[in-house]
Write a structure and sequence with these properties.
This protein has 578 residues and is α/β, with parallel strands linked by helices. It is built from 15 helices and 19 strands. A seven-stranded parallel sheet has the order 9-10-8-12-14-16-17, sandwiched between helices. A four-stranded antiparallel sheet has the order 4-5-3-6, with helices on one face.
């Protein structure tokens, strides 16, 4: 029996772990309200302007002098990457106090930026979908329509004829962690890291937090509630496994674990040609899990640090990443402008590390994507979700996005056709189940590691991430700008009549993995680049005009496509020559 998947919307402003939502009792009594943990945390991210060698980025003297100048006393919680600090007011702020604090401190000439350390949320369905009742591998049965559907597929088989991925390339999956024992991921996963921070103990001793702590001690069996967000009993450590996000809020809003990061990792790089489950887009490269969301949410500051860590850049208190990622997937987000701390982390990662691309889900709120980060950050590749019929998925954000990719919907585009996206799963409703005898559904395919129906931009983004990993496997010389240009220039135009042409803007077109990988492979440094055939004749060097060179190359049918692309973008190279 098929259950429909509810789409999660990201709340406006700061996402709390536990939103204040009025709920009617099961017996029709008075509405009750769950407490709001965001009011309890009251954290900020702040970076001071300091002269080189004068003070440590989060030195006590910086906070004390700030208090003298502004009247606001902040206490340091921990240093962040990039010279920023996580801090909170010394005393709990009254209603409207945070706005007053931010306005006052922002105007201080010795502060680079200060912003709320809010919560971001996974772009996932809120309910567990059912397992596929099939015995055959999902690709050969046509369930993975998004890989090769002639109307709305990404043309993956054409890319596989060029490369199925490089074993020494690393793909970062910043998400809820992964199930390391899932057979469709075994042998592909690097250890990764858990970047989810414990909550601040002092802030939890407030009237808003006390009911939450009481509930968590009872339900979670904990001695305190600092890990009410992390869900794994501790803070940052080297264990990137997913403990389950079964309790997204106190009763009656408890849902089953989503295993969100495992599904995202499966879309990118599930083991292929292994006779089980589904086929990933990349069959060979290593997957680096970075856990940034505990129980569905993640601190903004943890996401900032995770981007730098994934790229191999230093993060205070965390060992350096020995396997920097070349492309990073972020199927998580929040509403609002791109935080300054996040933008700085993205800039540093893309231009001062091996990281070549950051891919983000556009969001599932059916609004313009310009109001949702990280997709609205500069340099990020933002991905909308497209249905099997070629229209924008009804939940997908749109407008200021880079391109679209299949995201699935819960109603078939054509009668009898699958229209959702299959994902990796576990039969555990709360924590991971490792013994099939403990599964409630004893006929589910592959128990205890099973497969599910899904939808959402969380699944569209990893399709682009997987594609970029194949592009880089075929050509390591690609630049961040070159990757984005190739994706846009090779995208399949939306079909005539698509609402992406009439009612919405859905980016450059539909992701075409085959064409993108072929274009990357034929550029200088690529596996299909032929220097003898592609190099312009020597006589062009005397013409003194790039445009003249382009016009002459256009007369050479076998050489124009790659060279014309390079030459048509002044100061914006697509590939660096080795």
């Amino acid at each position: 029996m098929t259950r429909f998947v509810n789409r999660i919307s990201v709340t406006a402003t700061v996402l709390a772990l536990l939103a204040t939502v009025p709920m009617s009792s099961a017996h029709g009594g008075s509405p009750r309200t769950t407490p709001d943990l965001a009011k309890a945390s009251q954290q900020v991210m702040i970076r001071f302007k300091t002269a080189p060698g004068m003070n440590a980025p989060c030195a006590e003297v910086l906070f004390s002098s700030l208090a003298k100048r502004t009247g606001w006393t902040l206490r340091l919680i921990r240093p962040m990457s990039g010279g920023a600090c996580v801090a909170s007011p010394l005393n709990v702020l009254p209603a409207g106090g945070m706005d007053a604090l931010l306005k006052s401190v922002k105007s201080d000439s010795r502060v680079d930026f200060i912003e709320v350390n809010g919560f971001a949320k996974l772009k996932s369905p809120s309910l567990k979908p059912p397992r596929y009742p099939i015995n055959d591998p999902l690709f050969s049965s046509g369930v993975q329509w998004y890989l090769d559907d002639p109307l709305a597929g990404i043309n993956a088989p054409a890319a596989w004829r060029i490369t199925t991925g490089s074993p020494d390339l690393v793909i970062g999956i910043a998400d809820s962690g992964v199930l390391f024992r899932h057979p469709d991921l075994t042998g592909r996963l690097l250890p990764g890291y858990d970047m989810v921070s414990l909550l601040d103990a002092a802030a939890l001793a407030t009237p808003d937090a006390s009911p939450l702590c009481d509930w968590w001690r009872s339900k979670g069996g904990r001695s305190d509630c600092r890990d009410i967000l992390t869900g794994d009993g501790d803070g940052r450590d080297a264990d990137a496994s997913d403990p389950g996000d079964w309790a997204s809020s106190p009763m009656p809003e408890v849902s089953n674990s989503s295993w969100h990061g495992t599904s995202v990792a499966g879309v990118v790089g599930a083991n292929s040609n292994n006779g089980i489950g589904l086929a990933g887009i990349n069959w060979q490269s290593r997957l680096l899990p970075i856990r940034i969301a505990g129980r569905g949410h993640g601190f903004d500051s943890d996401i900032v640090d995770s981007i730098r860590w994934a790229a191999g850049l230093p993060v205070p208190g965390v060992p350096n990443n020995p396997s920097p990622a070349s492309v990073l997937n972020l199927s998580i987000g929040n509403e609002g402008r791109c935080p300054a701390a996040l933008q700085q982390a993205i800039d540093e990662a893309l231009y001062h590390s091996p990281l070549k691309a950051v891919v983000a889900a556009a969001g599932n709120e059916s609004v313009d994507a310009s109001g949702s980060w990280p997709g609205n950050c500069k340099g990020v590749i933002s991905v909308a979700a497209i249905q099997r019929n070629g229209n924008l998925a009804p939940y997908s954000n749109h407008g200021t996005v880079t391109l679209g990719a299949p995201g699935g919907v819960n109603q078939a585009a054509i009668a009898g056709q699958e229209s959702t996206i299959p994902g990796l799963d576990n039969c555990g409703e709360e924590t991971e189940v490792r013994d099939a005898s403990q599964c409630k559904d004893q006929i589910a395919e592959g128990i205890p590691y099973t497969y599910t129906y899904q939808e959402g931009t969380s699944l569209s983004a990893p399709m682009v991430t997987g594609t970029i990993s194949l592009m880089l496997s075929a050509n390591r010389s690609l630049t961040p700008g070159g990757i984005k240009h190739i994706l846009e220039s090779t995208a399949t135009p939306y079909r005539p009549g698509s609402d992406c042409l009439t009612n919405y803007r859905c980016g450059a077109g539909l992701l075409n993995t085959g064409r993108a990988v072929a274009a990357a492979a034929r550029l200088p440094g690529g596996t299909l680049y032929n220097a003898a055939r592609m190099t312009p004749p020597k006589r062009l060097s005397t013409m003194g005009s790039r445009h003249a060179m382009t016009r002459l190359l256009q007369t050479r049918q076998q050489t124009t496509s790659s060279w014309r692309t390079i030459l048509s973008i002044p100061g914006y190279p697509l590939a660096r020559r080795r």
